[in-house]
Request: fold
Amino acid sequence: ETGVTQTPRHLVMGMTNKKSLKCEQHLGHNAMYWYKQSAKKPLELMFVYSLEERVENNSVPSRFSPECPNSSHLFLHLHTLQPEDSALYLCASSARPRTSGAYNEQFFGPGTRLTVL
Amino acid sequence: DQQVKQNSPSLSVQEGRISILNCDYTNSMFDYFLWYKKYPAEGPTFLISISSIKDKNEDGRFTVFLNKSAKHLSLHIVPSQPGDSAVYFCAASASSNYQLIWGAGTKLIIKP
Reply:
């Protein structure tokens, strides 16, 4: 496997279910990100992990719980979601976000299409 | 309030012609700008970027122009090819921050 992979690619869940999204990067990066993309809206950054430490949490509801056990893996645990949480969830990775004034490009996985019934 | 705006949800261009995608921003602290391209069922892929110390960056058929006084950037694709049909996202970053702030995207359709 190369690049950034995400599983599952599609997920349908009820509001009372608990599920997890998984992201794995094979690029040797040390920063990982979760984004939410709703229809016709900008990508919304949810969480950033740098060197396995959470450095950003953009006021995301507690029903979304991230976990970064090591620099290659990132999880998003989901519980008691709402129908409005239905969206494409994208994982990305990069070298440390800013070095020497340049911005380190983020590499994205294919996303998980989540539907909450 | 959106800090990065792509006001055209879609754009249709004849194959071989120039495609011009526009992006406006409001935060004067942004100092790095990127364009990403996204095909259906795939994640966004990086296309080209520009630092605020430059006003132009070129890579093959793709050129990004930055007008800091107008807080405007544009992506030019010439000549446009059918494989360029995708959604294009503009994103911006400030030195002090990890975050990329994204526009809502413009769907580019290249007509044969």
